[in-house]
Model the fold of this input.
Amino acid sequence: MDNFLTLVGFGIVTGGSIMVPALGMTLMYGSSRFLNFAYGDFMTLAAFITISFASFLPLPVAIVLGVVALACFGPLVQRVVFAPLTGRNSLVLLVTSLGLSFVILNCIRAIWGTESRTLSTPKSLTHGMSVGPFLVTPLELIILVSALVISGLVTLLLYKTDLGIKIRATAESPGLAQTSGVAVGQLRTATWALASGLAGLGGILFALRVAFTSDFGFSLLLTVAAAIIVGGLGSPVGAVVGALVIGILSEVSTEWIDPSLKSGVAFVALAVMMLVRPHGLFGRAEA
Amino acid sequence: MIDFLVVVVTLGCFYALLATGLNLQLGTSGLANLGVAGFFAVGAYVTGMVMAPRDATDTDELLFKLGQPWIVAAVAAVVVTAVVGLLVGFVMSRVRLAPLFVAIITLAFAELLLLLLTTESSLANGFNGVRNVARPLSGVAGYFDYERYFAIVLLVLTALVVALVRYITHTPYGRTLRAVREDPELAESMGFDVRRLRLGVFVLGCAIMGLAGAFWAPYATVVEPSAFAIDATFLALVVVIIGGSGNALGPAAGSVLVICLIEEGSRFLPGGFATDVLPSARGIVIGLLLIVFLRLRPDGLVAERPQPHREVEA
Amino acid sequence: MSPLVVQGLAKSFGGVIAIDDVSFALHDGELLGLIGPNGAGKSTVLGVLSGAMAPDRGSVTVHGEAVVGLSAHDIARRGLRRCYQLPRTLLPLSVLENMLVGAHTRHHTTLRAAVLHPRSTRATDHVTAVEAMEFLDKFGMRHLAGQPARTLSGGQRKLLSIGQALMGHPRILVLDEPVAGVHPSFVEDIAGLLLDARANGVSVLVVEHNLRFLEEIADRVVVMAAGKVLAEGRLSDVRERDDVAEAYLGRREPRQPTDSRTTDTTGQSQQMTGERS
Done:
């Protein structure tokens, strides 16, 4: 039982790390009505930008710069790559985002190489300490707490502030928002900036914990996508809950299956959800 | 030079086959199958394992070893891949195989399969895969000639498959598929069962990918996970988009271009070219080609045309 | 027996009542108009009829068979075809192909048939094409048969979408505002098309705002307002009624008189269906 609780704890940590990018991805989907397959590479890009900045700046500054860089990069990509495709079939957008993913991934490889990298963190943060039944490092705690706090703040922003309500309104029905006088173009830029910033932060938080290579973002993409589909596409609360569900499921599953297979649990959860409740936990019935 | 040609033709045919399957799904029916590599892998692995000698010791860790001739293995490969396609399609059936979910679920399928193949070594020998796959009729031709004959046989097969798919897309069935692609709701209101039609064509496309796998196993003689990474899916996708989705001849045109220019063309680069950035540069070019083609020439090199009908001229 | 009978249909969206206890019947070989102000619930009725949405309560029978709960394609297979308000054509397909696709549900357009019986498939396709060309000829669109549908004008697309539905030889044709936004020169064509269909035994239900258009072609109309059936009968009679004029023009408080009269008409329509069956 203790072991089980420990696994649930790990699950919350894992879920926390998926939560931030999941929120961004679901926002981006809501704003543009397609799933951006380059989203994972946005995460990778932020991690590598942070590495470069961290070589001559203090780590927290480098992290902020990494997030800001992505918050600028996202809207730029939206303008240059996706905006000209407005009105085209959603398949075109989807395949274009795959092409973009390939371009970003290979640019990262060309600039930073293909070796495994780590973000060097202060030694004092990586000594294990016990919190209840858990053995964690201060770094992990900081990551978890910041992920939860930021997800909470963004969710609040989306449900309680004027801007957030507008963002959700356009996400739910673009036509309606347009007729009610919302500047859809500006809002889309804002949404992409926010979503890409969240992608960047998610990537950096991931990179702080473990060594990573140029394709870690793409391999996380499906896990993040699974989380938002399980939660319900386009729903911020769904993204948060979906991330926790996927995180806990994949950690708890190691009770029975080989831990190296745990990344597959997200896909199985996705498949089960498709069969049982295709619109997700918090999604609308029509997809 | 002739060896180069043989390689280009062979690889070109493999991509053309995969792309023909994908074209039926994506081009004709709007189903973005991103698990091409996975279905290709199913075909290749089944072929390898059905052919594996029962008493072989170096292939200890295979799910099964049946020691059957290639032709049996090939049939099994196509059937099993089709069944796997049906199962994957079934997962998406409640959302009527809507494009977004097709993309995600098929990608997840391919990733999960790769994960299982590499970590569960009792399944198919893990990273080592199925080794020493026998080459059918290898006694008839010598090793070097074999590759040439293989290329010719594969070329004929590819031509047949392309012709068959081209025929299918010109029949009322193909027309119906395109109607479903363009406006599923309208197609429903006309009385077409969109889910069933999509499921059927999805399975058909997967079967073609399984067929490609059945030829890959004896060609490569080794079936290992690394051959079935996302890159194979990506190249097939590029071939379809650049060649022209919806037109059966598109994949043929696309594969020739992609294989010659990107996969093998780098052989002709001047010496001293920085070889370590070459794979990245190639990836960037592929990605950009995809983006640019979708923006400027969404129909690809060979566009889908409204089909002429004798009545029109009459 | 009436080809299409709607009984006590109700549907609400998130607490907002769209239609409430709607009953009417489309008689054999009749051209029935469904009219009413915006928000009367006409589109919801169409959505339920064609299987696009499920009602909360009520029944729809097509040729005596209950179809609520069936999917859209199953209902279409039972002979009810729907035309959308914005003409939906398959843009990259040729005009002729658009027509042919409309007929494909009548034949075996399966992969098996295409591969195993190429000759009969081709023969059927030929017959269908001749029929389609006759239709196009009637509207001077023969020369456009090989063109992609995206090259057509709005009115031509509307004709094409109706033609596409007729190619399936439906027994019931349901149209959503067939002349809305259509160039006046096409209105007569469309009216002729619907009258022809009726003459060929198709029962037609037309949702329309344009009363002048209905006046010429409709045998009878059903008036809806605020989710209920308000009146039913010949258009010339119905339009004289105060409550109908009120609901249409939104004068005075339409609520109360509306409610009291609806009970009336519901009773009336039930009586009518009772007589017929």
